[in-house]
Amino acid sequence: MLINHREEIKSLQPYKPGKPIEDVKREYGLDNVIKLASNENPLGCSEKVKEKIKEGLNNLAIYPDGNATKLKEALSKSLNVSVEEILPSSGSDEMIDLIVKAYVNKGDEIIMADITFPRYIQTAEMMGGIPVIVPLKDYTFDLNGMLEKITDKTKIIWICNPNNPTGTMVKEEELVKFFDKVPENVLIIYDEAYREYATKDDYPKDSIKFIKNYPNILVMRTFSKAYGLAGIRVAYSVGNKEIIENINKVRGPFNVNSLALEAAITALEDQDFIKKSYDLNLEGKNYLYEEFDKMGFFYPPSETNHIFVNVERNGQEVFVELQKRGVIIRPMGGTFIRVSIGTMEENKIFIEKLKEVLGK
Ligand SMILES: *Cc1c(COP(=O)(O)O)cnc(C)c1O
Questions:
Q1: CA R_g for the chain
Q2: Is the pTM of the predicted complex or chain greater than 0.90?
Q3: CATH number, domain at 319?
Q4: Which of 4, 11, 70, 161 has the CA that lies 20 to 30 A from 84?
């Protein structure tokens, strides 16, 4: 090679996203393909957001507001935090990148679960950080196991609640006990990508109070999942001013595009859409639970819009066979697959095809 790249990227693999619907249609000559692979909202997004985006098309020649002032103000009002405690980003994916760029030095230890969002480990390695992996216990975060791994070198602990891909959650009570024991020089990133789907009373519905009580917690939220805006890339994080200031130094000047800024503000206002999405998800989840129960399949209870289920057959094979039949899911290693909860129609097609593949 002519040009030397950074040592840290040598062993990295590019992110493998789910196959797009169009590719699967072409590959297998199918007319109808459903994608239950990326935890997207099957209802799409709020109609009000679509209208707002159409208006925004008149301003494409103008740079977006690099400070995202209007979005920050809207969030500040609805969350009751100051604008200095908020930082919008182009999806949580960008925020994960920005966090490690701002905080991870070579040799820093980054604590995370074994089965969780893959960007945590990839970005740690990208910066020369050392991933410290704590296996899930009963498919749930082992917070005590994580505490035991804290050393002088620990920089970040990643908590995904509820967790992708297992769908499991940690209760507020346990989380607070854990926060109390983490030293203040360790950054806790609390990723709540699926918070809107959580059903249980002991799920921490109001995580914003954490950032008021603990200066080392950053809460990450996204518009990609329940809000149905994965395609336009917008998310935000909330935390201590000092953390926000540091991350703000390493972001691009116009990191959130103008359509995304407007979409996010309008999406926040349409909570009826979130309620509808929650209801549909719950209905679909109960239907899928029932069908999995009939087949005798194990799944940990999900507080998200996806289910991590043991189909007792090689997951990769099941993935390929389902794909041939026009259903895209995610194989998860071993005999587990992850299926996103779709519309009732999609859920029924998935079950029908799954039974076909498994000979049930
Ligand atoms: C989907 C997802 C994200 C990324 O969301 P974007 O805002 O679309 O980048 C972050 N964390 C978890 C756990 C996710 O599942």
A1: 21
A2: yes
A3: 3.90.1150.10
A4: 161
